[in-house]
Amino acid sequence: MIETQLHDDVLEIVMINPPVNALGEGVRTGLDEAITGALEDDAVKAIVIRGSGRLFSGGADITEFSKPPSGPSLPAIIDAIEASSKPVVAAIHGMALGGGLEVALGSHYRVATPKAKLGLPEVTLGILPGAGGTQRLPRLVGVEAALDIITSGTPITGAEAAELGLVDKLSAEETLVEDVIAFARTLDAPRRTGDRSISADPAVFTKFEADNARRFKDLEAPRACIEAIKAAVEMPLDAGQEKERALFMQLVKGDQSKALRHVFFAERAAAKIDGLPKDTQLRPVTKVGVIGAGTMGGGISMNFLSAGIPVTIVEMAQEALDRGTDIIRKNYEATAAKGRLTAEAVERAMNLLSPTLDFDVLKDCDLIIEAVYENMDVKKEIFARLDSIAKPGAMLASNTSFLSIDEIASVTKRPQDVLGLHFFSPANVMKLVEVVRGAKTAPDVLATGMDIARKIGKVPVVAGVCYGFIGNRMLIPRQTNANALLLEGATPEQIDRVHTGFGMAMGPFQMNDLAGVDIGWHRDANRIETLQDALCAEGRWGQKKQAGFYDYDDKRRPTPSPVVDRIIEDFRAQAGITSRTISDEEITVRTFYTMVNEGAKILEEGIAQRASDIDVVWTYGYGWPRHTGGPMFWADQIGLATVVDALKRYEDRLGEGVTLSPLLLARAAEGKPLDR
């Protein structure tokens, strides 16, 4: 866990705990012993701490949070580092995150590579830096910079850290060790961050919280971070640390932190494919083909281009191809205009794109993704054609949101090479990809699909074949009940308010208007069978028409629509329904609890590998609030018996086809979570 080497009069302490040098008990014990030994050794004049491999340290071992404390605590070790009578220098490369950065903050001096990442991301786990980070960072960089860094959790580079005064010296990575040892020899005495005092106008905190009210909405950890940073201004280090520790313990025991840690581990679990042979070899993917240059095809292409993978994009008409290519360029240039991309990077990506009308050019691609509209006949026609031209071993993927991968694969002579890669819109932004395993999808194809999704920066989840896979299937009972609730007496704004009040990014009808009310419409204005038909027949197709379930102004701001009220009233009259008062509780049960019930069915059927995979789908793909952990974790937290009792209470109103999941009923009766 720890190695030491004496370089004449400088002791080098190396933390070794791959893959991220987490500060688990073994590393902490080793650090404690090494620091103590260095202080007792007269030959040692200065101390250097660094991490082995590719980084300094990724921080604390999160798995220890739910275990009884053992070994020396991280705050105690960092205090000992700062109290050292001999100068201590942190040599930072790769990453110094969380507790790793706190070790560096406790050191007297810091040397980093320009591209190293330094950050305190604890807030993303619903906690705050608990080993002095909220006390020492403001003393080094000032209150305003510390507020930004700690409440956002976003790392800064070594070069940025040097500008803020967090880092004393920059060094090239290849000479970091030599440079730091040489620097350590020039130091005469420690320089303790905790000895500094800082001041700040109380209005700074008030303004910062007001400016970030929307970002911090419903979140406990950012506000606790602000309170802890206030303590750094108002108190000496030891008292501030006591305050920080009390806030940390309060958060770590809270529901939000448990939920956010669940999502953290759920994402990692989702990467594992159950039953995959250990010797499975990945297929090479060096060139990708995309069929369709529309919104999805263009967005999908950007993911690969940004990762340096050449893309051939195919369309049927030159106008559509040019329009799609232009949108890709405009998207890149918009990112560059915000300073997030260089002009050179834009050209590098665009130079990897080969637009064409020649379908046969796809024969050289290792992975071909179909991204045309949701029509089974069209998709089968495309895959039959692909089967005749794609090279042996090429992976053939559909971006379908609902349709059967098995039926699509059936028109090929290579169903083992076919899978689903369901990207979410906008595909160049949204992180989730459902990797759909067909009945005959080969293990190496599935594994390669998961791997390539991670390489392009996505969070992949394995899904089985059913209508809508995981995420969209769970939307069906929600939308069915939301539509029924409108006819029974609720309004679009009431239903959406319940959802956004819970923490969803948007409600069902806001989402309909954004996606397009006309999606799936039969396009016959004289055939009015549903509320959707009536809206579409009157040109209310959503935000793109400035009219859907809401009216929209030029800035796409929604207001309730009298026209929609009239359409709903007409439908009530036709159906003989008398409007009644709908409670928020009924909306919650019929739109949220029905999703949990459908998720349990998805588990029963093996469509999802584990309940936590469903949580990943919803937190990354549908705006489910991360601080509740996802729908399945949330249901476990509020109690499955509570969910079942409420569903039974409204069972006669849940709609045709909505039956209670046997798994949900069994787990509720047993008092066990859904995964057991």
TrEMBL record:
Its main location: other. SUPFAM superfamilies: 6-phosphogluconate dehydrogenase C-terminal domain-like, ClpP/crotonase, NAD(P)-binding Rossmann-fold domains. Pathway: Lipid metabolism; fatty acid beta-oxidation. Signal peptide: none annotated. The keyword Kinase does not apply. GO terms for molecular function: (3S)-3-hydroxyacyl-CoA dehydrogenase (NAD+) activity; enoyl-CoA hydratase activity; isomerase activity; NAD+ binding. It is found in: Peroxisome. It catalyses: a (3S)-3-hydroxyacyl-CoA + NAD(+) = a 3-oxoacyl-CoA + NADH + H(+). Residues 468-552, 587-666 form the 3-hydroxyacyl-CoA dehydrogenase C-terminal domain. Keywords: Fatty acid metabolism, Isomerase, Lipid degradation, Lipid metabolism, Lyase, Multifunctional enzyme, NAD, Oxidoreductase, Peroxisome. GO terms for biological process: fatty acid beta-oxidation. The keyword Secreted does not apply. Monomer. Belongs to the enoyl-CoA hydratase/isomerase family. This is Enoyl-CoA hydratase/isomerase family protein. It comes from Sphingobium yanoikuyae (Sphingomonas yanoikuyae).
